Amino acid sequence: MPFHDMLVDRYGGIVKIRGFFGTEQLYISDPRALQSIILKDQESFDETSVFLETNKVIFGPGLVSTAGHQHKRQRKIVFPVFSVAHLKGLTPVFYEVAERVGAFTAPTFSNVLADVIDTEASRNEDSVIDMADWMARAALETVGQTILGYSFDPLDSPHNNQYTSAIKDLIPTLFKLSLVRQLAPFLTRLGSRDFRRTLVEWTPVPAVQAVKGMSDVMYDTARGLLRQKQEEVKRGVVQDRKSVIGALLKANDEASAADKMDEDELIGQITVLIFGAQDTTASSLTRLLHTLSLHPEVQDKLRNEVAEAVSEGGRLEYDAVMSLPWLDAVLKETMRLYPPVPFVRRTTLKEQAVPLADTSNLPAQIKDAGSVTIPAGTIFFTSIAGANRLESVWGGDAREWKPERWLQGDRAAVTGVERLPGIYSGIMSFLGGERACVGYKFAQLEIKILLVTLLQRFRFAPTKQNGEIVWNLSQILSPSVRTQDGKERKGMPLGVERVI
Description:
The protein is of the alpha+beta class.
């Protein structure tokens, strides 16, 4: 991430860089250019063929691996599934998982690290827990219960299951195959599907075999669950709770023949929705807990707000959860400053001139025009993290974590002269336009309910007994512990104290 930050800090909102095999690429964070790319001229830009073809191999033909008419057709069916009305019905399910997380972890604290004592609070016994691992498991179980009505992980043992491990390791493993992935558009057209499968099985590269295994776990699970739900519908089985897959199957059945998705597309949607809702949400939750541990005064304000709202010890309804001002501010500010996905790649489908807000570091001809023309076929990075930290948008304190900037509303938070095309309060973390995250409201609710439940029961504090927490970039940011000898291991240990 320091390299990405340097590109924006030193060179400005649009930078020419060299990519694989010396190709000329762009790194873009300029707000006016992003308005053109994400909204105004979005038909001129799309995902790269490497991204689409790789995702198609791993997830199937879901939203992250389709483009053009097929993508619009799928989005038309999937987007309404995440309506506010449907999310309100799922709120109790979110609570059930959140409360299980709290119920399981609390009694085991003294057994996890009984020998760890906080010398600055000797009257309390401290426990250190890897919250990254628990947030990954909680996010998967929440997604499983709400999207599929299925339990991936009952959270009643200290171990991950097969699906959790597959999702957790997929992105880091794919990052190791960055060079191989550049060949995906060619390899996916090589011979028949069976031939390509055999070719993969014969490839003596551990990372390739690992990705194949992860993809198989996700595909087989999604296909089995889809057929189970379809069979239940045929038998007229009445579900005792709502699920996203139920709404998706209903919407697909009611769609016109031209819009209806086939089985492979439905499997693709399920796999993408589970993966997309789990990995980024787990990263966001882990970052939120880490950040709150570093700002105990804000953590206390948030806990007091929650305690006041939950005066009778019951669950908050959807509207109450979503209207808590400090909770909303903390989530928005953390997503702004620390987006779990700091950039995405795009390609230019046809030559397009994009306007620029800042031309101070650019050649005279670009300054005079106030825009730059991007040739067709150009690969570029859309810098989410860079745009989210622009002083021209957020003001002089753009690089500071200040949740209070949101307490007066979204418009008050944007203090600069420029605006971003983000679907979520002008933040780029869920993107915008036709490639915006369809489940961004789902993610907000999931994160807020988990935080509400955890903060009622626990206080989180940083701990340095195990080393320094660092955030690694492998497309989705994830934490590791770096020890004094420079070695790193995955995870984010925090001191956890029961408050009730």
